[in-house]
């Protein structure tokens, strides 16, 4: 309800309307990254090798289950969903992948996967799957035709292998209707070979969005990975007073870069927060605000909305609990609503206004909109003043859209921002027309009319009681 109200207020106030995900460029997307086996069990028909007490075993999630819970993702306003490795493999992590066509029978059938992808597209969600391009299983057609080392790594990545792989992946795209693919196990591919593979695939599927799980120097990837930036995000928000700052890097960032606090193949940051005796919901709200308001592609691992925990990577990939407290779900939805509805937040200019002692203020602006984002990642109350000249001659006010804060111009021509410890706010800058007198009069009239109504009702009630004595 809160998310829907925020969206309504934003649209009515700022005249902005959501854009279809497929109409957005790749760098405008927001991504929800899940593992099919650990998301939702929709049917018992494919429950084999299931052991909920063994983090290395299958848990029973399937294509039917993901399809049943797409609304959960939609409510958080994500535009893109990565389903992970859905192919026949040796385990739920997708190791030793045997095919780009044959689906993992623990997850369901080819028909069920096609139905899921179709439903995602019907719901205006971009469907993405993982395609490992190295260390494939011995039964994979490419492995049979090209030489590898004992552990499955290609001995030579030549034109023949690149062409054959492009053909196999394109066949999968055509069969299942993928909008995008994420290439994994790319570490041993040089940039030129990876660029050739992507060029060949896009020659046959020119609208295909291509991303990689690992960082690469290939320059034709649509959404790119930056390992150092992910680590800096992690180190900045793992605790308050971290002394680490990621914001200087944002002024020159490639807008195609994924912004992540943790990854689905890494240790959950919630675990580390707890180890440091931090309060995860507060830590996550601080981190997520930066994630969605900074330039780049926000990417969130499934389970973040419930602060999923785990001492190891596998233990951190728990079966999603849809019955637990989901305070962060609404918060993510609010942030995504702002980002989806604002061209400026997605593509506008970025300017760092203040960044000192774990207190950061930055602007996202364009000719049409101006936003001020405040992130206090410290354990003290902080203050920062923005001079009137920042916003030109026109008198404005800063209206907080997350916590309903309101800042007006002071007598000394400053906009004074005061932020409590571990608090964030996103301010929309709008013309300050003073108090809305007609609105105030109307509100008073409604209040007076209600009082008069109660008076008449009570008076008539007393008369009726007196007449009946």
Automatic annotation (TrEMBL):
Domain of life (superkingdom): Bacteria
SUPFAM superfamilies, per the entry: (Trans)glycosidases, Glycosyl hydrolase domain
UniProt signal peptide: 1-21
InterPro entries (UniProt xref): Alpha-amylase-like_C, GH, GH13_cat_dom, Glyco_hydro_b
UniProt keywords, alphabetically: Hydrolase, Membrane, Signal, Transmembrane, Transmembrane helix
Transmembrane regions: 437-458
Glycosyl hydrolase family 13 catalytic domain sequence ranges: 33-339
Molecular function per GO: hydrolase activity
Record's protein name: Alpha-amylase family glycosyl hydrolase
Species name: Savagea faecisuis
